[in-house]
Amino acid sequence: MRRALFLIHSASLLVPARLRGEWSQEWLAELHFLDSRSLGDDQLIAFARGAFTDAVWHGRNVWDREAFAHQAQSAEFCLAALLAAIVLIGTVSGLFSMTRSVLMPLPYRDSAQIATVSKRGVALTMRAAVPAAFVSLWQSDSQSLQGAASYLWRQDSVQIGSARAKPVLTARVSENFFPLLGVRVNDCQGCIALSYDFWQHELRGRPVTSETSLVLGGQRYRVAGVLDKGFWFMSHRIAIWQVVPLSSLARGAGAVVRLRPGVTSAEAERDLSATLEKAGLNPWDTLVQVSPLPSRVHAVFGSFGLALALGIVTAMASSRLRLPKWNPRGALFFLAKTALLLALVLLAGLEFTHAPFITMLGGTDLATEPLSAWLFLLGCTLVLLWSMRDQRARCRVCLRRLGLPTRVGCPGCLLLDWAGTELVCVEGHGMLHVPEMVSCWHEPEHWTSLDDSWQGLFERS
Amino acid sequence: MADEIKLTHTSALILQTIGAGYRYGFDIMEATGLPSGTVYPALRRLEQLALIQSTWEKASKALAEQRPARKYYKLTAAGGRTLEKAIQRYPLLRHVSQLS
User: Fold this and answer.
1) H or E element in which residue A70 lies
2) B39 in reach of chain A (CB within 8 A)
3) For a tag site, which of A112, A171, A259, A415 has the least CB within 10 Å?
4) CA distance B64 to B55
5) Looking at the complex, does the CB of residue A33 fall below 8 Å from at least one CB of chain B?
6) How high is the ipTM of this complex?
7) Considering CB atoms only, which of A30, A54, A61 is closest to B26?
């Protein structure tokens, strides 16, 4: 009943205020009647869901469009619309699931000590897979590590029951992978573990028993258990985890290590290279790169910060986009609006692009990082420019968008008769003159305040 | 004007159900099997077209039964005429059972 009531009250917000009381009264009375007939919660909720369609009908057919257009020009509406966009992103993305996992501590024991290791390639910035023999050597001989494990992920097909096979991302990891991360998982040779999301969506959260199994890549596996809700490693899309002997990953995979406390990445790199050299490998083959996992995950914020700095420089360099004179309320609105816009860019980037994803080798791939950095740059620049442009086009007093644009003056007459466009505040607070040409002896825009004697012209019927 | 209105089958079914004596939104849902998200907007539209008229039941009656007052709907004269025409278009509507 409580959830049904919440739905009806939420839907009522979509109904124009003057009709809301009666509308709510009817829906609540009907809900009360349903409840008195001892209908189940599901039926009450199904009934209450219809309130949204009904409320939208009211919104579409009875809404005062003129009043809405008037309201849409206000500063409050602008901020509310931006907040609504953020809420929409949150709703679509499952309450900012990606952002939360990037911001929250990584779901491993002492995650600051977890790092990925990759081989440096011909070009020092390139990364390559690490052979299983290296991991085995580091596990036994390295002084800087507490442990090393291998992992490999690939696209596979999974079939549950009689349903059709569907593609999923699966990971094969060496036996000590989960203990190294400090993650609890049932020990079972030849079994698989499911990610929490996969279990929820595909098995509908049904309890996993000794009979639970699924067909992966044409072979049936027993399900050993479900990983913790917040667990993820490198990519959220990995649905199924399979523990295999390290030797079966011989051809090379990603390597994850746990550094001893106090050991830095540079020290670990030197130690791992020395361990390989001692084993008689060619020095060129011993070059490795150790990347602490938390810093890789948080690298996306670095990209955003850089993009924001460049965006600010670009916006400041635009001479046509001077902000209006300082006014505390206007400045507060500008800051709030810009912060919301930037948050929108960051959240959209985190949730809908692959910006926070890390490749199997512990880095970001060649396309994703530059692409996300460019998208952030473009997004930050555009929102900053728009925010400044929007600020200029608002009344200096009430912050409402200026309207009624009128072209004035004679374009050919440059002396004392500047051509331009005049915009006016519909509340009658003032008028903005925007010249057609910018000249050095004249400010780019001129704001004229209108006193109370003009109010009669601006009264709304 | 109302006589010229061409109703969809769903609207005609709801109109016929009201004509048959089902007066409350949920009763109409039960009788037609339509979900609330279809019935209530259709009721608004039919009322806007003056084919039905809504009235709040007496507060004293609701109070006596310790429940909120409900809104009920009834056919207008124009609604009756439109329903007749709709039944000619959708003959199966005649089979919608009358309220016993």
Assistant:
1) helix A65-72
2) yes
3) A415
4) 18
5) yes
6) 0.89
7) A30
**pLDDT average per 10 residues of sequence, chain A (461 residues):** 86 85 90 83 86 84 70 91 94 85 86 88 63 88 91 86 83 89 80 89 83 85 87 85 83 86 91 90 84 85 90 80 73 94 93 72 60 85 92 89 84 70 87 78 77 75 54
- Cβ atoms of B99 and B21 closer than 8 Å: yes
Q: Was domain B2-91 assigned CATH 1.10.10.10?
A: yes
Contact B40 A47 (CB under 8 A): no
For residue B57, give how far its alpha carbon lies from the nearest alpha carbon of chain A (Å).
11
Query: Can you list the alpha helix ranges (DSSP code H) found in A170-292?
Result: 177-181, 196-202, 265-278
Given B35, B37, B70, which is nearest A33 (Cβ)?
B70
To the question of pTM greater than 0.95 for the whole model, the response is no
Minimal CA–CA distance to A400: which of A460, A345, A444?
A460
Domains of chain B, by residue range, sit at 2-91
How many other C-beta atoms are found inside a 10 Å radius of the C-beta of residue A68?
Answer: 12
CB under 8 Å to A63, separation ≥6 — which residues?
Answer: A16
Instruction: Give the CB-side neighbour count of residue B25, counting CA atoms within 13 A.
Output: 34
